[in-house]
Amino acid sequence: MDQLQSIRVFARVVEAGTFTKAAESLDLPKGTVTKLVQHLESRLKVKLLNRTTRRVTVTPDGAAYYERTARLLNDLDDVEASMTNAQAKPSGRLRVDVGTSVAQYIIIPALADFYRRYPDIQLDLGVTDRPVDLITDNVDCVIRGGELQEQSLVARRIANLPLVTVASPAYLKAHGTPTHPEQLETDHTMINYFSTRTGRMYPNEFHKDGQKLEISGRYKLSVNESNAMTAALLAGLGVAQTGSFVAVPLIERGELVQVLAEWACETIPVYVVYPPNRHLSAKVRAFVEWAAELFAKQPHMGR
After folding, report:
1. For each successive 10 residues of the chain (303 residues), what is the average pLDDT?
2. In what helix (H) or strand (E) does residue 76 lie, and over which residues does it extend?
3. How far is Cα 227 from Cα 105, in angstroms, rounded to an integer?
4. At what angle do helices 3-16 and 19-26 cross, to 10 degrees?
5. CA–CA dist 259, 238 (Å, integer)
């Protein structure tokens, strides 16, 4: 059996956490993955992994071996990529994950341009506001807003997303227009957003003249998906903060109205993120550069 293949398979099992997920991501039979790891352990005469029915854990020897071989594999991938990227057209299957509103309003409308540039890339676009695990889910890169929770990932900041406070004309006609954020606590109904990861409700931040207010407000509805937030706003269910790239076109069409405009809202950083132990292949590099260029052109995004 090929020694390098055995090392790559072992590293993938460590990253994926199970033999099944590793086999799926490598497009190999589970039995082959198991045999390759067993062959590696036999050759090294050391136990690298502890197997249970649900998960694989790394032994101390396995952790040390993975740490050293992962660096070597990464260096090897970098050398191969540097030799081939200059000549090769980006091609192959690319798995990217993006948030729902970003997909609907920014990425998908621009994909015709992406395919004109890179006709040989097959894009698997995961669309969800739920955070994904890039390693276990075998995702090449993601575009996400907000501060990064996993500091080991490689992140490139490609934009800043301003938020605006809005409501529908019908809601404001029925309930009046707030003139101060504190009125959202007593006189109005909010539509709130909660984290899919923790279930925690995100507060609405307001800034003015050095003053910062965090308003949760009274709410009857909270959502964990950005397109659902837009639908709730258009249905007149309350006041909410949402991304300017979604809100501004709706404001211009008269479907939403900005309120409390003199109070600045939070600005959310937007990142394209990929795992640190994967070289930036031609296809990943192509998408990252294209996405950065695309976001730089957006009229309602900050640089």
Report:
1. 82 85 85 89 89 81 86 70 62 90 95 95 91 78 82 82 95 95 93 87 90 88 94 96 94 97 91 74 88 90 67
2. helix 60-84
3. 10
4. 120
5. 12
* Cβ atoms of 235 and 168 closer than 8 Å: yes
Query: What does the DSSP assignment read for 90-152?
Result: P-EEEEEEE-HHHIIIIIGGGHHHHHHH-TTEEEEEEE-SS---TTTTT-SEEEEES--S-TT
The answer to whether residues 292 and 158 touch, using CB atoms and an 8 Å cutoff, is yes
| pLDDT recorded at residue 130 | 85
Q: What is the structure's pLDDT at 2?
A: 78
What's the distance, CA 117 to chain centroid? Answer: 23
Predicted TM-score (pTM) of this structure: 0.71
Closest CA to 258 of 271, 248, 273, 246: 248
The dihedrals phi and psi of 207, each to the nearest 5 degrees, come to: -130, 135
Give, in order, the Cα–Cα distances in Å from 57 to each of 17, 32, 123, 233, 256: 7, 19, 32, 46, 52
Question: For the residues of 176-226, what is the DSSP string, one character each?
Answer: ---SSTTHHHHT-EEEEEB-TTT-PBPPEEEEETTEEEEE--EEEEEESSH
Calpha distance 301→164 (Å, rounded): 12
Helix axes 244-252, 226-234, angle to 10 degrees: 20
What pLDDT does 152 receive? 66
